[in-house]
Every structure is written in structure tokens, then in C-alpha cells.
């Protein structure tokens, strides 16, 4: 090797069956977290035909959009949730009561697959996703209005 000694990375659980026992402990821990700590907030559910599923800033923007829609008399709904643990049971139940689930994220899609997986057994509701594709000013992939490449 050049410049340093060779290093070997090893598991801390080297005895017979130790890694499997450790993995089952982690599995039980994550299941307990999913059961006890998943959070979902329902907002203006009555008579809703469209549900917004979002978290963080996108959830706050979604609530504002729902308030605007309520002033206009449009059907509306929102579910503002934690990303981990994902409240799959709540999203599944919500999907059974609305016509459209709109997933709004301001990232590269951390949550959309969880929503898709949670709703794959429901019938009757459409699934829609929207991702804000924000890029830094001057990034060649950015929209021309944001200082990116034209054309």
C-alpha cells in the first residue's frame, strides 16, 4: 500500500448467530417506533375529494393552498406527516376516502414511494405526484428564469 497501512473493516458481531440476533433486535425496535411514533395530522377533512400528502415546508404551503381553496368552495384535504416513521396505515385509510392523492415534496422523492406502497391495495383513488425541482442559481440544469441554460 502507498502511504498507509491496510485497514480491514469487520462487523462488531463476530460470534455465531450474533449478527442475526442483533438484526432481529433492530427489527423489533423499528417496528415499535413505527407503531408508537408515526404521526399524521389531518386538516379540513370534511367533504374532501382531494388529499395532499406532504411534510415540512411543503405541508405548510399545502395548508395555505387548502385555506385558499376553502374560500373558493373547492373540496379539499391535507395530511401533513412525518417522513420517518411513515404513517402508512393513516395514508391507506385516507386513500380509501378521497378521489385523488396529491403528494407534494420539495426534494428528490423521499416520501412518494412510501405513499405509493401504502396505497397500492386501495381502489378508486388516483395517485398524483409533484416535485419541486429547485436548482441553485447558475446551475446549467436550472430553468432559464433562474439563471440556467437557455434553450
CATH class of the domain at 38-131: Alpha Beta
Mass-distribution shape = elongated
The second-level CATH architecture of the domain at 38-131 is: 3-Layer(aba) Sandwich
Distance between the termini: 49 Å
List segments where confidence is low: pLDDT < 50 over at least 5 consecutive residues: 145-151
Integer average pLDDT? 75
Strand order of the largest sheet: 1-3-2-4-5
CATH fold-type name of the domain at 38-131: Rossmann fold
- Major β-sheet annotation: 5 strands, mixed
How many strands appear in the DSSP assignment?
5
Structure overview:
Mean pLDDT is 75; it is low at 145-151. The chain is of the alpha/beta class and 151 residues long. Strand 2 (50-54), helix 2 and strand 3 (78-81) form a beta-alpha-beta unit. A five-stranded mixed beta sheet has the order 1-3-2-4-5, sandwiched between helices. It contains four helices and five strands, in the order αββαβαβαβ. It is elongated.
